[in-house]
User: Which sequence fits this backbone?
């Protein structure tokens, strides 16, 4: 072993390393588009551009995978980033950086989610009097807001992703002796790309 | 959480050192852990037949007895609260500095179907919403149920996301708190 020139040993080590990863000398810089739970999810909106160093890659709507045009050689560092997110979306990259060959293949995950916006609105003057309390709900998981005579307007605590439906209704009126009937206008719709404050609660005596 | 655990652990080690000086207690570690998703009273845990009634809806628990190192423990759920199912994990070991607080009690709230009746629906395209959950009854349908079930104790509020072609539908009895059981009394009337 002593007799071997150092250079030969180094070459042998490189060969060993290459054979350990299947003998590949060139690696695709690639990945998939998934949800935060890891389920495949096609890119919904246009405009996404990924970047690896100076290499940029525009992504079409509907893409489920990506691969940069330039592959990289064993040992080359890679760092996949979002250069431009899709319209109205936020994206993050998981397992996007490393050294080619450290894993058998480069398999990054890009997670894109629709931006979220709040819903809210106003209360018609005189709707809630004295100690009456009106509770609004956005379905079973969208949260509730509690309104009193001092409430001027309201915003639900849970923001809603673009494209997701919401439905605001009157969950309860207490005490029952308030004897009023409340209606919600503009309470049900599909979220767009800006906050909504157009819901109107109006209560009248029964 | 890690730093909290280690800090608690350090405190316990200190406590055990002090206890050793006093000689009043052979044990040093309480079987303990965290509780996820508990939203009502009624959870009862046990270890080695000794019960611990959980008061309210805390996010962690600790049995009052201090155990000597290497004492086996197994935290069990003796009783879940009504309408919830609680399951222990990482709950069986010999107690030591690293294991005494590993138990996690995960509670889920039982969901039930929400739906009701429809009258007069002749147009197509109606979509009903319970917040972000939707259902699209076809013309002629007289009954509907949301695919997404609702956890008991959660509110619900049914509204019309999209009216059917040429008709207007209204919802009555569409709001409430989900009981422990199916709720099928929402009334949709189309004209």
Assistant:
């Amino acid at each position: 072993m002593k007799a071997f020139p150092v250079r030969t040993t180094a070459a042998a080590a490189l060969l060993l390393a290459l054979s350990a990863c299947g003998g590949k000398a060139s690696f695709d810089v690639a990945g998939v588009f998934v949800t935060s739970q890891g389920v495949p999810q096609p890119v919904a909106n246009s405009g996404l551009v990924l970047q690896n160093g100076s290499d940029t890659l525009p992504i079409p709507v509907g893409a489920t995978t990506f691969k940069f045009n330039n592959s990289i050689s064993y040992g080359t560092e890679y760092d996949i980033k979002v250069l431009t997110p899709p319209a109205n979306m936020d994206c993050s990259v998981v397992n996007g950086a490393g050294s080619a060959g450290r894993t058998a293949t480069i398999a990054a995950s890009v997670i894109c989610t629709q931006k979220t916006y709040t819903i809210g609105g106003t209360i018609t003057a005189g709707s809630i009097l004295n100690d009456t309390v009106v509770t609004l709900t956005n379905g079973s998981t969208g949260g509730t807001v509690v309104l009193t005579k001092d409430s001027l307007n309201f915003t639900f605590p849970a923001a809603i992703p673009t494209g997701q439906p919401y439905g605001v209704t009157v969950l309860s009126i207490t005490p029952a002796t308030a004897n009023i009937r409340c209606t919600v206008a503009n309470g049900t719709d599909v979220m767009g790309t800006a906050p909504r404050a157009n819901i109107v609660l109006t209560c009248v005596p029964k | 959480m890690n730093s909290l655990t280690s800090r608690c652990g350090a405190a316990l080690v200190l406590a055990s050192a002090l206890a050793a000086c006093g000689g009043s207690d052979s044990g040093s570690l309480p079987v303990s852990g965290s509780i996820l998703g508990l939203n009502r009273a009624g959870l009862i845990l046990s270890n080695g037949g000794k019960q611990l009634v959980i008061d309210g809806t805390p996010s962690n628990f600790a049995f009052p007895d201090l155990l000597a190192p290497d004492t086996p423990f197994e935290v069990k759920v003796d009783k879940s609260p009504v309408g919830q199912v609680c399951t222990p994990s990482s709950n069986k070991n010999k107690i030591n500095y690293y294991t005494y607080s590993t138990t996690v009690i995960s509670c889920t709230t039982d969901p039930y179907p929400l739906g009701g009746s429809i009258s007069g629906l002749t147009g197509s395209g109606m979509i009903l919403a319970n917040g972000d959950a939707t259902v699209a009854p076809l013309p002629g349908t007289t009954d509907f149920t949301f695919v997404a079930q609702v956890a008991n104790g959660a509110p619900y509020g049914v509204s019309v996301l999209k009216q059917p072609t040429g008709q207007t539908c209204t919802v009555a009895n569409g709001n409430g708190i989900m009981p422990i059981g199916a709720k099928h009394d929402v009334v949709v009337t189309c004209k």
Observations:
- The CA atoms of residues 36 and 48 of chain B lie 22 Å apart.
